[in-house]
Amino acid sequence: MIEPHDLSGVLYLPPNPSALVIFAHGSGSSRLSPRNVFVAEKLVDRGLACLLFDLLTPEEAEDRRNVFDIPLLAERVGDALRWVPGQERLAHLPICLFGASTGAAAALVAACEATTEIAAVVSRGGRPDLAGDVLRRLKAPSLLIVGGWDEDVLTLNRKALAMFQCEARLEIVAGATHLFEEPGTLEEVVTLAGDWFLRHVTQSPR
Q: Would you tell me how many other CB atoms lie within 10 Å of the CB of residue 34?
């Protein structure tokens, strides 16, 4: 449970992890998101610990407005970041964030506001535009992954990319729609995300 709101989570822990990736799921989803579970399991194969947790309590999730409340979701990512130092198996690890859909905006805001260093951020089919001017203050290297057929979101990501003042890149997965349901597309997301995380955790001083 992630305090202080007793948010349920699942920790995927490989032997000798090189970093911890905290997931921020998208609107209407949860720690059980099949796409994020798939990504987490594959990242674990590459030696990355992964934490998937519910950003909202069951009662909060009943109010549809909350799933688009970026400050609230970012605060919950911050709760997870504050939880990590108290966990003996995780406290020494560099921290990365992986956000999907609206969760990507929450991850970016949380990375900017975090008191601990964030080694890297990855957005999958995300809405970084919803993070607003925070993007100009972000220091964590950020990778935006968008499906080539997800045209509206791709346009928003291109505009958001221009706001970053830190290292940032846009990767387009050809033939993929918003949920990366097409054969092989989610596997490509895993490869891109894993490469990005591993490259930057080796540069992290933590």
A: 10
The CA-atom distances, in angstroms, between 2 and each of 15, 35, 102, 123, 168 are 23, 22, 20, 22, 30
3-state secondary structure of 142: strand
pLDDT digit string, tens, across residues 65-87: 888 899 999 999 999 999 999 99
Q: What are the phi and psi torsion angles at 63 (to 5°)? A: -95, 110
Q: What's phi and psi for 61, nearest 5 deg?
A: -65, -20
State how far the Cα of 26 lies from the Cα of 69, in Å rounded to an integer.
11
At 12 the three-state DSSP class reads: strand
In angstroms, rounded to a whole number, what is the distance separating the alpha carbons of residues 143 and 61? 28
Q: What is the rounded average pLDDT of the residues 128-154?
A: 96
Q: Tokens 């939880």, residue? A: 83
